[in-house]
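User: I've been trying to design a sequence by hand for this structure and keep getting stuck. Would you show me what you'd pick, starting by listing the structure so we're on the same page?

Assistant: Good idea, let's start from the same input. This is the structure you sent:
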């Protein structure tokens, strides 16, 4: 199918059509940004209503990662001066989760550096998740790398319902940003998590030198995987990494990417992640033009925003993060 009008395409998607990789989607790249965003807003209103899903994270184990992802401050091959530490005490993790719950965040994730969380550290994570599941109401998410089916089964049994594992970019471009593991390693982990019943949160990073076609390919790959929560990170180049000195993307490119991802994945939560500070009003405009979710609070190694600020922003925009019965564990409306 060749797209001849953004408004017509929006109507077709609302009527049930889904874009395919073989469709001529070139108009998504050249259409007036305001027109594209208006279409994305209509899709967002239909499939997500006025609900915005806010998730929070804690860096449960920092640095000394043996992988060589060029963008990452936590890779041992990079010299970024970040704090490095072993798995945090359970009490500290639960304290942060409780504070985020009290601030009305929808979910909380422990994120750990390394190829995979294993051994005693994984056992510690399981203990923390079990206690949080028993004592808190906040939704639980995990991001622990390339886990086995058995590990994912244990996580689910401990009360975790969302697993975060980015594909990062297109299959074509992936070897340009990482060679210590493969794109297929990531796809395999995603499918194992889905088989265990997890809602998988998976997206990527833009601004690493990829082409617009790579961004389209990533969006279609996530569509094929049936991903329900798609974080879009805009690269914040960190000194000492393989991406040091790379210029930040213009806000217009980020906003176009968000809108395009909404057209290709209309029912998913398109989630603002790193790089929100590059957007007008810290992402407020994006939340009315395709983005229906966001990470809030502190990021891993780049500063984010406060939950209080984000809650005030929602009120100004006439949006809410109140959970509703039809919202799944990833915050996607049905």
């Amino acid at each position: 199918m060749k797209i001849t009008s953004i408004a017509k395409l929006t109507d077709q998607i609302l009527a049930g059509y889904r874009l395919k990789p073989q469709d001529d989607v070139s108009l998504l790249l050249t259409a007036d940004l305001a027109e594209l965003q208006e279409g994305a807003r209509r899709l967002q209103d239909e499939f997500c209503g006025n609900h915005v899903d806010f998730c929070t994270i804690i860096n449960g184990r920092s640095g000394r990662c043996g992988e060589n992802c060029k963008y990452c401050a936590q890779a041992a091959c990079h010299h970024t001066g970040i704090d490095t530490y072993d798995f945090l005490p359970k009490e500290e993790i639960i304290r942060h989760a409780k504070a985020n719950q009290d601030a009305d965040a929808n979910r909380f994730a422990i994120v750990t550096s390394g190829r995979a969380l294993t051994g005693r550290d994984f056992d510690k994570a399981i203990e923390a998740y079990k206690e949080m599941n028993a004592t808190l109401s906040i939704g639980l998410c995990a991001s622990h790398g390339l886990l086995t089916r058995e590990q994912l089964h244990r996580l689910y049994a401990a009360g975790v319902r969302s697993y975060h594992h980015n594909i990062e970019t297109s299959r074509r471009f992936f070897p340009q940003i990482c060679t210590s593991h493969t794109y297929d390693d990531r796809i395999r982990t995603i499918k194992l998590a889905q088989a265990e019943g997890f809602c998988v949160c998976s997206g990527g990073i833009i601004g690493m030198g990829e082409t617009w076609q790579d961004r389209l390919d990533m969006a279609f790959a996530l569509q094929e995987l049936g991903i329900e929560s798609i974080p879009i990170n805009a690269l914040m180049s960190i000194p000492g990494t393989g991406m040091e000195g790379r210029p930040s993307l213009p806000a217009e490119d980020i906003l176009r990417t968000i809108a395009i991802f909404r057209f290709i994945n209309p029912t998913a939560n398109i989630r603002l992640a790193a790089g929100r500070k590059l957007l007008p009003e810290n992402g407020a405009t994006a939340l009315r033009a395709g983005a229906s979710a966001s990470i809030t609070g502190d990021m891993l190694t780049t500063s984010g925003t406060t939950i209080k600020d984000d809650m005030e922003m929602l009120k100004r925009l006439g949006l809410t993060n109140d959970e509703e019965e039809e919202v799944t564990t990833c915050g996607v409306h049905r």
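That's my pick for every position. To get oriented when you compare it with your attempt: The first strand starts at residue 53 and ends at 61. Residues 245 and 266 are 34 Å apart (CA to CA).
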